[in-house]
Design a protein that fits this description.
With about 170 residues, the protein is of the alpha+beta class. It is built from 4 helices and 8 strands.
Length: about 170
């Protein structure tokens, strides 16, 4: 599982660390990567924005990487292709194959809040307002009359409705 929630207010990195451990374990074996690779990602806050940096060296971003917003999820997917054609033997530590990373987005954000750029092997995705506090709306408190009466009902209608509900 490669899902990360961007807006955990307590410790935004705890969920990320837990996901990495559950996917790969704490050992250096990392057997889950044999079929492809999972690029390393950092999720940091920059003011109210979330900045996700994903290591993608050797990837042709224009052809092989897609960044999408799918509902309340940011999905980065792509493929690192093995360009060697000689079929040479030897030790290979560089992973190739398809990858997919998913990050949870706050429900109030849409695709317009997301921008992406690629430089020097690092894909940087900025999610504007990911850590913004929801706007607080103050509710006026009236005195002297029940809310139903203040809304235009007569006191008798309000009392009759309350009696019918019991």
């Amino acid at each position: 599982m490669n899902s990360v929630s961007l807006w955990s207010r307590t410790n935004p990195f705890a969920e990320f660390d837990a996901l990495v451990r559950s996917a790969f374990g704490d050992s250096a074996g990392w057997p889950a990567q044999r079929a492809g690779f999972t690029p390393a990602a950092d999720v940091v806050s920059d003011g109210e924005d979330a900045v996700i940096r994903i290591e993608l060296p050797g990837v042709r971003v224009e052809d092989d990487v897609t960044v999408e917003v799918d509902g309340d999820r940011l999905v980065v997917r792509g493929e690192r292709r093995d360009e060697t054609t000689d079929g040479g033997r030897g030790r290979r530590e560089v992973r190739y194959g398809a990858f997919r990373r998913t990050f949870g987005l706050p429900r109030h954000l849409g695709p317009d809040a997301v921008t992406a750029s690629y430089d020097a092997g690092v894909l940087t995705v900025r999610v504007a307002g990911a850590y913004a506090q929801p706007a607080t709306r103050r509710i006026a408190v009236t005195t002297g009359q029940p809310a139903a009466v203040a809304a235009g009902e007569s006191p008798a209608e309000s009392t009759d409705e309350a009696a019918n509900q019991e």
